[in-house]
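Deviations from the work plan: none for this task. Representative record:
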Amino acid sequence: MGKPTRIQNRIRALRFANDEMTQAQLAEQVGVTRQTIIAIEQSRYSPSLEMAFKIAKVFQVELGEVFQYQDD
Amino acid sequence: MSFEEKTTWVMAATTPAAYAVYLSVILPQLSITPASQVAYESPLVAAIVAAIVATIVGHIVIIACNPKEADQSDERDAMIERSGGYVSSYVLGAGCLGALSLTMLEFDHFWIANALFLSFVLADLTSSVVKLLRYRVGC
């Protein structure tokens, strides 16, 4: 696996807390491919601000509860 | 694997394959005939057409295997596409400069045409490799 991005996320935990939502279900609600959700969860891709807000909206939480920026 | 990644694999396979077939036709002629007399035009056009047809067939097979994901792409696919195009543009630019140099040095049409064709192939291959690395390793 490549170098992870500095943006960490809690998508996996949030999916589990939301009736064990699948990656495919989340992808459908956000309007992206399942592979993109997988890449974000594994910190292989940093989503755009718009997509980040969409993901937070699906879970009905603030953006900061989904994504965190990790300093060195 | 997303639809766009699958189509990238198809591109990565078809273009080099078509070029390899083209070389297998041209190189034997080149070893026994002066470059100016090698009949490269028809094999070159045939290789380009074959690569395009093979890519289209590959797309159709991918869609037939999973119609639901046909033409599904998102911002990540678009970003990866741009990334591949950005890197490959340098390869294509270098190749065109090479072909331009050959023209100014009055090389035979055979070498100029083949320099351009090789540039297209290498640019396409570079784009595919960059995109596949982005898909696999991350971006």
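The mean pLDDT of chain B is 92.
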